[in-house]
Amino acid sequence: MAYIGKAPNTAIVNQTTSQSFNGTGSATAFTLNRSVNVSEDLEVFVNNVQQEPGSGKAYTASGTTLTFSAAPASGTGNIYVIYRGEATINPRLEHDANAALAATTGTFSGAFTSPGIDDNADATAITIDSSENVLIGDASPQVTSKLTVSGNGSADTATFMYDGTAGTYLDINTNTANGIISLEANARSGNYPPLTFITSGSERLRIQAGGGISFNGDTAAANALSDFETGSWTPSFDNSIGNGPTVTYTYQIGRYTKVGNRVHWTARISWSAFSMNGSGYALLAGFPFTADSTTAFSQGSNTFGYASGIGGSDGLSGLYIDPGANKFYMTTSANPTAELLGSNIGSAGAFYCGGSVQV
After folding, report:
1. Residue 131: what pLDDT?
2. CB atoms inside a 10 Å sphere around CB 112
3. Over the stretch 309-343, which tens digit does the pLDDT of each residue have?
4. Which residues constitute the domain of residue 138?
5. Which value, in Å, is the radius of gyration of the alpha carbons in the chain?
6. Where among 89, 111, 140 does a domain terminate?
């Protein structure tokens, strides 16, 4: 059908124009099928007598509630309501694609697509895929995903990137000459290894790909610090024939610091009773590490600082540990190449000792 002007809205919904209720003699509130704004939106009859609307009068109405000032008498359909206005138009809302949309709340029933996260974006900024992966700068987790943050200048940049050909890496730089940190999960040609700290353009600390830490540009894995730890141990007596002495200890205190493959150790031991249980050399046992199996390096430098009740007339010189072992032999001052016999340990005494061993 032809018309002049804007096309008429065809989404017309005929709504309820009248409604009846059963009075109970006690109920004063009734639920309407349609929402109203004011009491005058209704014409209300009780037992065919029209009622006066308004506060302090026969009834009031707001929303979907009709409230009488006094309960209507009992009856079937004796309350009759007429809605003023026979029908309303339920328009279909459509937004102009060329106009801005302002909203404070709402839910999208379908997918929401945006090229960016602000009104200046001109490319995909963030994608959340069906596996809940958050992808920055791309739509695929297996091709190239990256985040670049620029500061006041183009060199103030933090870059997080995944690239199947270049490896996984993280670079944070304050400027092109002086980087702070470079991190890679896979080494890339021409770049730093897995974790490197840089200041003033020079490498200061590196964690080697195979483990260990090196310093100040040293790239040799063999020179890397492989371990550092501190701890305690419990020194005790033993003998070379394996059946051990019977000892009543007053105290047993041992400490160590391990730097790479070198252990620096100390021991303090005191006893109030000692029985050898046979012959054999006296050993200091309980050391928590096994000496290097190479004779030239394992024995190190180990000595006594104080001793009493031990050594007999010979006195004590030092201690040494066999390659591949974890117990020290004690030597005498009279003959530094001779091991101390268990029979030279007195029934009570004490000593302090310490040294360095390669493990």
Report:
1. 64
2. 6
3. 886 555 677 888 888 889 998 887 767 677 888 88
4. 126-223
5. 46
6. 89
